[in-house]
Amino acid sequence: MAVTIYGIKNCDTMKKARNWLEDHGVAHEFHDYKALGIDRAHLESWIDQAGLDTVLNRAGTTFRKLPDAERENLTREKAIALMLDQPSMIKRPVLETKGRLLIGFRPEVYADMFKG
Questions:
Q1: Which domain holds residue 44?
Q2: Which of 12, 43, 79, 113 is most exposed by smallest CB count within 10 Å?
Q3: What is the CATH number of the domain that holds 56?
Q4: pLDDT tens, 69-105?
């Protein structure tokens, strides 16, 4: 089964998620979107599946430091442009597997996904 986890190397939540996968023997590929970037197709797919409010990290420092004009009246297109320009605005981790998408890390949700 192909498992890809997207995020930023130094994020504490990412470290927890990656450690969980390793501790449970789940082979995975790590895509650091701060180093490697992310493409529009992924962002559009994630937003279609999970919703803009789930994908965009409004609570993060990067988003909060934006000028008010950039944070206000945020359309899907404007949000995608911001995330393409500054991938740290994407919530993390984003995990793709089995045709499913998980955003954020909750051990019980990972356990349910990978049981068996």
A1: 3-114
A2: 12
A3: 3.40.30.10
A4: 989 889 999 999 999 999 999 999 999 998 899 999 9
| Partners of 97 in the β-ladder | 3, 100
The residue assigned the tokens 């529009």 is 40
Annotated active-site positions, please? 11
* Domains held by the chain: number: 1
User: Using an 8 Å Cβ cutoff, are 90 and 33 in contact?
Assistant: yes
14-60 residue pLDDT tens: 999 999 999 999 999 999 998 999 999 999 999 999 999 999 999 99
Which residues are within 8 A (CB) of 3 and not within 5 positions of it... i.e. 6 or more apart? 21, 26, 27, 28, 29, 95, 96, 97
Instruction: Report the C-alpha gap between 80 and 43 in whole angstroms.
Output: 7
Give the single-character DSSP code of 29: E
